[in-house]
Protein: Guanine deaminase
Amino acid sequence: MSAHSAQQRDEYLNLAIQLAVHNVSDGGGPFGAVVVTADGTVHEGVNRVTRDHDPTAHAEVVAIRRAAAASKRFDLTGSVLYASCEPCPLCLSATLWARIGHVYFAADRHGAAKAGFDDAVFYEYFAGTRPELLPVEHAELAASNEPFDAWRNHARRTAY
Ligand SMILES: Nc1nc2[nH]cnc2c(=O)[nH]1
Structure:
């Protein structure tokens, strides 16, 4: 499913945009997303941050969670993500972990910034230009790598 036609692309992007518009009148954030899995199944997501009291409930993450749960897979190889807005670093990370193969988005991070969202600012953090936003410190302890030792020694581990 990684090579969608331009017509399919625009249809799914318009669906994501309509989900975003309707989510605003439903009291949520202005973001919608669609994951199309390799078998062509469509999984929709809308931003649920404020309604679910969940800062990670971005539209893309919600769509990925729904796609994974419905297909009973944590690896969504062959899927495509369509987002009404450029995925933020959180959503991109979730997309990478889901092994989704391609992303299309409509509005960009600068449009989100004009609506008051911090997507563009957080991109700057990951670009290394705003380190003051979040100090992250490495504290190496004697036991730091014990979890990985336990994992490597666990014969029946499920790798991901
Ligand atoms: N792409 C995207 N950016 C956001 N910024 C705040 N919420 C969201 C969301 O759900 N999706």
About this structure: The chain has one domain: 6-153. The radius of gyration is 18 Å. Residues 29, 31, 47, 58-60, 83, 85, 87-88, 91, 112, 117, 119 surround guanine (CB under 6 Å).
